[in-house]
Structures are given as C-alpha cells and as structure tokens.
Design goal:
Layout lengths: L7 H4 L11 H9 L1 E6 L4 E3 L7 E7 L1 E7 L5 E8 L3 E2 L1 H6 L6 E4 L3 E7 H10 L1 H27 L2 H13 L7 E3 L4 H7 L4 H13 L3 E4 L2 E4 L2 H8 L3
Antiparallel strand pairs: 1-8, 2-7, 3-6, 3-8, 4-5, 4-7, 9-11, 10-11
Length: about 230
C-alpha cells in the first residue's frame, strides 16, 4: 500500500464536479470522503458488492470489468486521471455492476453515498453536475455499442488510436493506456485480432509500434479508413 500525500481541503476544489461549491457544501462532501492510495492490481470493489459511494481518479488508472458466467472478464472502460466512476449506482444504492481494479499505482478520492445524497438534497446545481457527468458516460457507452456493432476490427483500432492521439505530441504519438490484452478487451477484440490489426496497419505504413508506444504516420489516411463501411 502506498501513502497519499494529498489533503482533502486542497483537493476537493480542484475536482470539476466540486468546483464552485461553497465552503459549506465542500464541508458536506469532505465529511464523507477520504483520499486513498492503492497499489497496482488492488480491487476497489467487486461486481455485486454493496454500493458505498463513487470514486474520482486523482492519479493513475482504473479498469472496470464485468464477469461472464464462465468466468471470462470483459473490460468495459479504462478510467484515467481526472475522471470519476460509480456515480450512477449511488442513486439506486444496491450493488456495483462492475469490478474496479487499479491498473497502476493509483490515488483516488472516495466519496460516500450519504455525502452525495445529502448535498443533492441541499443543492440542485450539484444535481445538474452529476447528471451532466452521467450523460457524458452514457454518450460514451452508446458510441462504444455503435462501434462494436457497426465497425470492423480495423475501424475499432483506428478509432481508438485517433481518439487517444488527440493532444499528444501533435496527435502522432499514442501510449497505450494499458496492456494490449486489456485494450483488446476494451475494444471487444481478442488479443490476437488486435495484434494482427496493428501488424496490418504497420505493413501499410500507417503506424509503427514499439512496445506500448504507437506512432501514427498518416492520420488523414487512418481517418479515411475509419469512415469506410
């Protein structure tokens, strides 16, 4: 277990969800929150565990997975630093529908359900922020379902690379956020299909791969392939 160097008073106002809250409102959140540092591989909660609250990733990455009846796991999402997860289930208060695991050493803000519900009762503007956050995640889920249903394996990989490349080194360099097996599951592909697709794009001169680093050599041509049906 690593030790967090973050303190609650300085952290809360930096989180977009809590930005602009009054001191009294921040006090409500702080009373039901704590900062937690966990090592890579730590399971924050299992699918089916009772809901305790939601989490904000301060540093690191968390993967959300679901388990099938045969024990196979599917990666639904890789949550990066600066994003939260678990907000929606705070409202039904029953069980978590996914398992959350730290992909790397990670620092999190854990916010209890009681603190969230208390603030929602006091502040309608906070409710709107929560709904906006969940709307973003819903749009992302719809986009993922569309991708799995309508796009080829090559288009899924290209779409992922172009999305990850935004804002990084002029949009040319991508560092895969997790091991290739995890990324493959995230894209609803087998690891073999992901590797074969990356090799094909490399052979066409569109990318080069070095470990988890992918260089995009011709983003416009990649984008053109993304539009093929």
């Amino acid at each position: 277990m690593t030790h967090s160097t973050l303190t609650m008073p300085g952290l809360l106002p930096r989180i977009p969800l809590f930005a602009g809250l009054t001191r009294e409102q921040l006090t409500v959140i702080a009373a039901g929150s704590h900062v937690r540092a966990v090592d890579r591989g730590t399971i924050l909660f299992h699918q089916g565990d009772p809901v305790r609250g939601f989490f904000f990733v301060v540093r690191g990455q968390v993967q959300l997975t679901v388990s099938a009846a045969d024990g196979a796991e599917k990666v639904l999402e890789i949550v990066p630093a600066g994003e939260s997860f678990g907000e929606a289930v705070v409202f039904d208060g029953i069980t978590y529908p996914v398992t959350a695991t730290a992909l790397v050493d990670t620092e999190l803000l854990s916010v209890s359900s009681r603190a969230v519900l208390d603030l929602l009762d006091r502040d309608p503007s906070f409710a709107r922020r929560m709904l906006a956050n969940m709307a973003v995640r819903l749009r992302r889920l719809v986009r993922d379902v569309e991708s799995y249903s309508l796009r080829t394996s090559e288009q899924r990989v290209i779409g992922f690379l172009l999305h990850e490349a935004r804002g990084e080194d002029g949009g040319r360099e991508v560092v895969l956020p997790a091991a290739k097996q995890t990324v493959a599951s995230r894209l609803n592909l087998t690891p073999e299909t992901l590797s074969r697709t990356l090799r094909g794009l490399t052979a066409d001169g569109l990318i080069s791969v070095r470990g988890r680093c992918v260089t995009l050599h011709d983003a416009p041509r990649l984008a053109a392939r993304l539009e093929w049906r």
